[in-house]
Design a protein that fits this description.
This protein is α/β, with parallel strands linked by helices. It contains 13 helices and 18 strands. It has a seven-stranded mixed β-sheet with strand order 7-6-5-8-9-12-11. The chain has a six-stranded mixed β-sheet with strand order 15-14-13-16-17-18. α5 packs parallel to α6. The longest helix is centred in the C-terminal third of the chain and has 27 residues. The structure holds S-adenosylmethionine, thymidine-5'-phosphate (TMP) and zinc ion. Thymidine-5'-phosphate binds next to α11 and α12. The site of zinc ion (ZN) has 8 residues, from loops.
């Protein structure tokens, strides 16, 4: 086992700062009849590049194991995210897609949650999505979609066939792609001279501030900061011209890149860079502090769940998120502590959570009857879920949260 690796952006030395040990694929929900010996595991560990400051996984999972016809995550499962992406599309339509016959390409369009609005507006678009199950849902909603991984070759072919893109957009996808060099080469081949590449992903600053260690799992290969994104952009003749913090998914940043020299950076870029420097985001003592807090959350959460069991309280989980794989497997939580997790995603229901083998059931099971305590694994959708399940608390039920600290109430 090596505690160093090579940076996937600049080839610098990456030094490890946390090891979660053997972990399964976060979205590989297995049928109850599956042979557990067939389950795929890898070492989930995270490090920082001492050259370009990019935070990244130490080991990479082959992409076909994660993104395939049965990829279970459907972006439209959350009302809040649907509204977020509708607003995003409306904003792009009003600001960047105003010329004659504008063209937008989305990397990782999933079920078309964003492009549906673009399609309805009659604007030329293309979603590039390797997971054919979700891609077919996008197509059924009138979205033009190509089943492939976006990389340099794909992008060049699109440029040749359909001309330059005014906007290239990606949400919760760029951080999933270890071969970023190829993606950025593709972006520069496809982007119109005055076009923008806009992407939004979980912010490492929020992960540190909230100890949201469950953002770290197989699919999230990179953990971006303003500084590391700016350095990555510069390597490809691109410039970071705007950053916007977003409240979704536990704290994200929307980055806007343009060809170097074509747009003046907004003051937000320098302001966030200064904030990151003041916070010493990737300094060794900051990362060591994060590591200590992660261990603390693990110890407190497992102690709380054992105590609840000892008292005979009925505990269930809510939201079989990809993030929950890290929590459950790192903390050693299985069906003896949490007998089932409710989730609204049909593709997850009737299956077992990866590695921890907790049954996933439909949301109706939650109220049948209400448990004493529910662990909110989908904490990033807290407002939406707690509003929907208000009757649970009204009936005396309590929620357990573990971000930013273990809390019951
Ligand atoms: N954009 C949606 C959202 O924000 O909800 C989907 C995010 S989902 C977590 C990541 C998506 O990226 C998956 O649908 C996956 O199939 C897709 N993906 C992974 N690698 C990709 C690549 N190289 N090119 C395009 N899409 C990719
Ligand atoms: P995410 O954190 O990756 O978006 O995953 C959220 C998971 O939580 C997903 O499996 C769907 C589930 N979920 C519910 O079960 N009920 C809900 O109301 C919401 C918003 C999500
Ligand atoms: Zn680097």
């Amino acid at each position: 086992m090596s505690t160093t690796s090579r940076c996937r952006v600049c080839d610098g030395l990456v030094t490890e700062f946390f090891d979660f040990g053997r972990q399964p694929l976060s979205d590989a929900f297995i049928p109850p009849t599956a042979d557990p010996a067939e389950e795929f595991f890898f070492r989930l560990a995270v490090g920082v590049c001492r050259e370009c400051t990019m935070v990244q996984l130490m080991e990479e999972v082959p992409r076909e194991r994660m993104f395939h016809a049965d990829y279970p995550y459907h972006s439209s499962g959350s009302l809040v995210m649907r509204a977020h992406f509708e607003a995003t599309a409306e904003r792009l339509l009003a600001t960047e897609l105003t010329g004659p016959d504008p063209f937008i390409v989305e990397i990782g369009c999933n079920d078309g949650v964003m492009l549906r609005t673009v399609a309805r507006a009659g604007v030329r678009h293309l979603g590039v999505e390797p997971s054919s199950g979700v891609a077919n849902v996008a197509a059924a909603h009138g979205v033009r979609v190509q089943h492939s991984f976006f990389e340099a070759e794909t992008a060049r072919a699109i440029a040749e066939r359909e001309g330059p893109a005014d906007v290239i957009y990606a949400a919760n996808t760029l951080c999933h792609i270890p071969y970023l060099g190829s993606v950025l080469a593709g972006v520069t081949a496809l982007l119109a001279p005055d076009g923008v590449f806009v992407f939004e992903d979980p912010y490492f600053g929020d992960i540190i501030a909230q100890t949201s260690f469950d953002q770290i799992y197989d699919e999230h290969f990179f953990y971006f900061t303003v500084r590391s994104v700016r350095a990555m952009a510069a390597r490809h003749g691109l410039e970071l011209v705007d950053v916007q913090r977003l409240p979704v998914h536990g704290g994200e940043i929307r980055y806007t890149l343009a060809r170097a020299g074509t747009r003046a950076p907004t003051p937000a870029v320098a302001a966030l860079l200064a904030e990151e420097d003041a916070a010493r985001l990737v300094a060794p003592d900051t990362l060591a502090g994060f590591a200590a807090r992660v261990r603390g959350v693990r110890d407190e959460l497992t102690a709380l769940l054992r105590e609840l069991r000892a008292r005979g309280e009925r505990v269930v989980g809510y939201g079989a998120t990809a993030k929950s794989a890290t929590v459950l497997n790192y903390c050693g939580i299985g069906p003896e502590l949490i007998p089932f997790i409710c989730d609204s995603t049909p593709a997850k229901q009737g299956r077992l959570t990866p590695g921890s083998h907790i049954p996933v059931r439909e949301p109706a099971a939650f109220a049948d009857p209400y448990p004493d305590v529910a662990v909110l694994f989908a904490w990033n959708h807290a407002e939406e879920i707690m509003a929907k399940e208000a009757a649970f608390r009204a009936s005396g039920g309590r929620w357990v949260r573990y971000v930013p600290r273990v809390w019951i109430g």
